[in-house]
Specification:
single chain, alpha+beta, BirA Bifunctional Protein, domain 2, 2 domains, 8-stranded mixed β-sheet, two-stranded antiparallel sheet, 10 strands, elongated
Length: 341
């Protein structure tokens, strides 16, 4: 029985599907579309049809012929593209000996001081902890002896989220979780980004970094606190820096202190970077309030501890002589690239 147009069509496509080389495509073209090809042959046999059927049949055979030509062409193009890809892949070898045309990347100055301070405290037995940026009211305030409506909440202009949580205003927000996680004795530092909805100037940003530190053990006193603060500053600056300690109020420490550093930009004379005072608030600290220890599950009969909240962004300003804190968040690569290390 003679093969129908549809059967021939399916047979052609099946053979085309199986073909995978240039010669195979050419063979198919000759077999179906050549002078003596199977599709071409159908046109030759049209004479045997009744005259009124010839037109319709001829159109169908021509459509099949065109379809076969296009299908073969498409497969040949795909094969060429694949061949090209393989050639490119084979020649794309990297010559590691070629000189680089790219400039060297650099670490952000805050990353540099953060790592430096981390190393100093790690060498003194402190672990380095990580904590969330989005926290709840309990951890940021209540667990730190700052109940609702306490005036101390006004010291930090908070960004509240619509779900009732908030952006961490200070790294102290991690104190409770870390005390609960490790218990006493404990030595830990936890750097982090903080957010405050306040107007910016040369020494205030609304996004800045702090590094919190806590040490809890038997017989910890203010002299331990002063020793660790002095060691950290002399290691970071590698020279004597003028600091002053004055009383400071924070509900989560008692007693509390403000540790200020003599402004490295003006040498203490007064400039916009230190709000013309010659001093910059750098690292408030104090003895952890017993209410905070209790909230953290620490036995206050046995343990005492100190805590500090180092302004990492300000430390980077002082260490590298950056006059305006806003430059650190500017993304200006020309100024940030100076800190290649
Ligand atoms: C606090 O945030 C307390 N949690 C610190 C603390 C911890 C005290 C443990 C006692 C014990 P304060 O708001 O002062 O405190 O911020 C601490 C330091 O972060 C400041 O001294 C300053 O160096 C830095 N800082 C605060 N606000 C900004 C700001 N807007 N921009 C840049 N740095 C800031």
């Amino acid at each position: 029985m003679a093969i129908t147009l549809e059967e021939l069509r399916q047979q052609f496509h099946e053979q085309l599907r199986q073909a995978n080389a240039a010669e195979a495509f050419e063979d198919l073209r000759v077999r179906y579309l050549g002078k003596k090809g199977e599709i071409t042959g159908l046109l030759r046999n049209m004479g045997a049809l009744a005259p009124e059927k010839r037109k319709e049949y001829g159109a169908k055979v021509n459509a099949l012929k065109e379809e076969a030509e296009m299908s073969i062409k498409k497969r040949i193009e795909e094969a060429h593209a694949r061949e090209l890809e393989l050639k490119i892949a084979a020649t794309e070898r990297y010559d590691l000996t070629l000189p680089s045309t790219l400039s060297e990347g650099s670490y952000h100055p805050i990353t540099l001081v953060q790592r430096e301070v981390e190393q100093i405290f790690a060498s003194m037995g402190f672990t380095i902890e990580d904590y969330d940026e989005i926290v709840d009211d309990y951890h940021c305030f209540e667990a730190l002896n700052i109940p609702k409506h306490h005036p101390a909440r006004d010291m930090q202009d908070t960004y509240y989220l619509s779900n009732g949580q908030l952006l961490k205003t200070h790294t102290s927000a991690a104190q409770n979780a870390i005390m609960r996680k490790y218990g006493a004795p404990l030595r830990a530092i936890f750097p982090g980004r903080c957010f405050r909805n306040e107007s910016t100037d040369a020494c205030h940003e609304n996004t800045f970094f702090q590094m919190e530190g806590i040490m809890i053990d038997e017989n910890i006193s203010i002299s331990n606190l002063i020793y660790f603060m002095k060691t950290m500053l002399s290691e970071v600056f590698q020279r004597d820096v003028k600091v002053r300690l004055r009383p400071g109020f924070f509900p989560f420490v008692e007693p509390g202190f403000e540790l200020d550093i003599s402004c490295a930009i003006c040498g203490g004379k007064g400039c916009p970077s230190c709000k013309n005072s010659g001093w910059l608030e750098l690292c408030p600290c104090g003895m952890i309030h017993p209410n905070v220890l209790k909230a953290g599950g620490i036995d206050t009969e046995k343990y005492t501890g100190f805590a500090f909240g180092l302004g990492l962004t300000r430390l980077a300003m002082m260490k590298y002589g950056i006059k305006d804190i806003r430059d650190l968040n500017s993304g200006n690569l020309r100024s940030l690239n100076q800190f290649v290390k």
